[in-house]
Amino acid sequence: IVILKDSASVAEYGANIFIKQLQKKADSVLGLATGSTPVSLYQGLIAANKAKQISFNQVTTFNLDEYLGLEGTHPQSYRYFMNEQLFDHVDIDKAQTFVPPGDAENPIAACQGYEDQIKAAGGIDIQLLGIGRNGHIGFNEPSSGLMSRTRVKTLTKATIDDNARFFEAGEYQPHLSITMGIGTILDAKKVVLLATGEAKADAIKATVEGALTAACPASALQLHQDAVLVIDEAAASKL
Ligand code: GLP
């Protein structure tokens, strides 16, 4: 657990972990996340790419989750977010960027397909995570099986409310998602969770000091051999 002063320091520290990873292994398989927390980290990676400190041209990426029912061209889809926040600004081959298909005709088959793609890529070297106020990782809401794999998951009211800020009033907001499972996340060789702000303090306390329980999906990281939590003082305030 790395506790830093503020969100800017968290983003910089997190970006450096990814920069070192890419300098060590140019063809790394990265697990990526959405939400507001990783945005500054992505800006750090874009800057490092522009400064030629790192290249993405051999990198493969897998995103954690996607809204079910949104096409990748929808501005609230996570595919769109990733293009805007990272992929459009670095030298990555877009064909090597994978996000669960929110517009799949057969979502259940698509979940297995996603697992197969991760496996075919050789597994994830380093997985970036944010955390929901209720302790969710990806869209693994409380009560998610600790060994779960990529699947369709219903969102809780708390998560729908938290994410409503991104949708226009009256706009359709999905209640379902496709998310990597907790078991899928735990298979990554290294996991980096970022959390900032007081709103995350309860979730961080439950993750670090609470019991291993499906009631707090992030507590499953207690089982991982190489998991680092990079958090600011506000998110750490209840430890
Ligand atoms: C969404 C995503 C999560 C993310 C969470 C927190 O629910 N599915 O992966 O961690 O939001 O987002 P934020 O970083 O905006 O607080």
UniProtKB/TrEMBL annotation:
Allosterically activated by N-acetylglucosamine 6-phosphate (GlcNAc6P). It catalyses: alpha-D-glucosamine 6-phosphate + H2O = beta-D-fructose 6-phosphate + NH4(+). It is an enzyme of class 3 (hydrolase). The active site is at 65 (proton acceptor), 134 (for ring-opening step), 136 (proton acceptor), 141 (for ring-opening step). Pfam families: Glucosamine_iso. GO terms for biological process: carbohydrate metabolic process; glucosamine catabolic process; N-acetylglucosamine catabolic process; N-acetylneuraminate catabolic process. GO terms for cellular component: cytoplasm. Gene3D superfamilies: 3.40.50.1360. CDD domains: GlcN6P_deaminase. Its EC number is 3.5.99.6. Residues 8-227 form the Glucosamine/galactosamine-6-phosphate isomerase domain. GO terms for molecular function: glucosamine-6-phosphate deaminase activity; identical protein binding. The keyword Lyase does not apply. It comes from the Bacteria. InterPro entries: Glc/Gal-6P_isomerase (IPR006148), Glucosamine6P_isomerase (IPR004547), Glucosamine6P_isomerase_CS (IPR018321), NagB/RpiA_transferase-like (IPR037171). Pathway: Amino-sugar metabolism; N-acetylneuraminate degradation; D-fructose 6-phosphate from N-acetylneuraminate: step 5/5. Keywords: Allosteric enzyme, Carbohydrate metabolism, Hydrolase. Catalyzes the reversible isomerization-deamination of glucosamine 6-phosphate (GlcN6P) to form fructose 6-phosphate (Fru6P) and ammonium ion. Belongs to the glucosamine/galactosamine-6-phosphate isomerase family. NagB subfamily. HAMAP family: GlcN6P_deamin. This is Glucosamine-6-phosphate deaminase. It comes from Shewanella fidelis. The lineage of its organism: Bacteria, Pseudomonadati, Pseudomonadota, Gammaproteobacteria, Alteromonadales.
